[in-house]
Amino acid sequence: MLKRLIRAFADVTSHTPKGIPKVIDKIVWVNVIDYNGTKHVIAGYEGESLLRAIEKHKIDIPASCRGGDFIIPETEEPVDPLRYGPTCSECQVVVSEPWVNYLKPLGQWEKDRITKTVTGYFEPGSRLACCFVLHKWMNGMEISIPYNLEQKMEQDDIPFERGSNRIF
């Protein structure tokens, strides 16, 4: 009789809710070094893309496509083969050496975009921030933004000649 009571009580307690998840359990802290060399410590949520976390903290990162396909983002699993994927390679970041070894290999679209960049900049630790999903084990990861594409374009501008572009 006592065994049945204990067994019944054990079953009831095993199905009780474990508690409300805490926000601190879902936050991932990442060290970001921008193209000026300034270090920022940012917080992102687990499962969020690195691009969203960087933009949320108002750090300048070039990204004209803002993550590419918004309907099915690159960060979502499984990846649909009929989707657009990232459409630019401007949000490129470089993951520091000890952390690169633990990352998954580059995805099909991400690898295609990084190897065919406008700037020609590629390192073994290069990733696209829009395709980079934050996980809890990434706490303290160091990531750098290698260049500012907008500054590069300003230097390459052709001077505007007054009157040469008029249509009348």
From TrEMBL:
<keyword id="KW-0408">Iron</keyword>
<dbReference type="GO" id="GO:0046872">
    <property type="term" value="F:metal ion binding"/>
</dbReference>
<dbReference type="GO" id="GO:0140647">
    <property type="term" value="P:P450-containing electron transport chain"/>
</dbReference>
<feature type="domain" description="2Fe-2S ferredoxin-type">
    <location>
        <begin position="28"/>
        <end position="149"/>
    </location>
</feature>
<dbReference type="InterPro" id="IPR012675">
    <property type="entry name" value="Beta-grasp_dom_sf"/>
</dbReference>
<protein>
    <recommendedName>
        <fullName>2Fe-2S ferredoxin-type domain-containing protein</fullName>
    </recommendedName>
</protein>
<keyword id="KW-0411">Iron-sulfur</keyword>
<dbReference type="InterPro" id="IPR001041">
    <property type="entry name" value="2Fe-2S_ferredoxin-type"/>
</dbReference>
<dbReference type="GO" id="GO:0005739">
    <property type="term" value="C:mitochondrion"/>
</dbReference>
<dbReference type="GO" id="GO:0051537">
    <property type="term" value="F:2 iron, 2 sulfur cluster binding"/>
</dbReference>
<dbReference type="Pfam" id="PF00111">
    <property type="entry name" value="Fer2"/>
</dbReference>
<dbReference type="InterPro" id="IPR001055">
    <property type="entry name" value="Adrenodoxin-like"/>
</dbReference>
<keyword id="KW-0001">2Fe-2S</keyword>
<dbReference type="InterPro" id="IPR036010">
    <property type="entry name" value="2Fe-2S_ferredoxin-like_sf"/>
</dbReference>
<keyword id="KW-0479">Metal-binding</keyword>
<comment type="similarity">
    <text>Belongs to the adrenodoxin/putidaredoxin family.</text>
</comment>
<dbReference type="GO" id="GO:0009055">
    <property type="term" value="F:electron transfer activity"/>
</dbReference>
